[in-house]
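Wait, can you check?
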Amino acid sequence: MNNKISIILSTYNEGYIIEKTINEIFNNINNVEVILVDDNSTDGTIEKVKNLNYPNLKFFSRTNKGLASAFLLALINSEGNIVGWFDSNMPSLIKKIPEMLEELKNNDLVILSRFVKGGRDDRSKLRTMSSLYINYICRFWLGSEIKDYTSGVFLMHRNTLVSGVPICYGHGEFFIEFLYKLKNRGIKIKEIPYTHPPDHVGMSKTASNIFRFFKLGMDYIIRIIISKFRKN
């Protein structure tokens, strides 16, 4: 495939694994660039990225502005006609890219999904159940054609953005609205199964305590309702 591929990574204190993730991408995918946005890591993440010698590695370091705006910044600075977003702490998923590229030949956007046949979520029970319930709500309000609205791991053709540009504020909930908009505009979306690996830490860095965890859940629910009724 002659298409240039842009892989977006967002980081916050991923120093323990970021080199492995970037190496996996460049060692296994042809004609690829990586655009990384770091939100003020304190563990040396960005220093490790700077020491990697890849000409097609772009990185931006900024004060913490959130996951959604990190995605937008990277998207603006990407050059590929195929664009993907992967979790920076899950290098094992890079091996799924060839399968995703194959599916992209007949689809506009390909998602890695925990909730189609063959998919699984091996994280803690709290995080697994919260994702399951949020996706139940998504399917109730937004339609059951998509099973994993909150995956956030995908590849798409850049020209898919003609049909819908993500409204990038908040955390990962922006991806729910983005998928809903594309679905309603007839974009061909394909889900393929994957297993979400166990947590490296007990609680997500973006939800570092129970209060923050439930607040984030409410933000997702509010965004689902906004997505349903927003006119765009």
In short: The first strand starts at residue 5 and ends at 11. The mean pLDDT is 92. The domain at 5-229 is CATH 3.90.550.10 (Spore Coat Polysaccharide Biosynthesis Protein SpsA; Chain A).
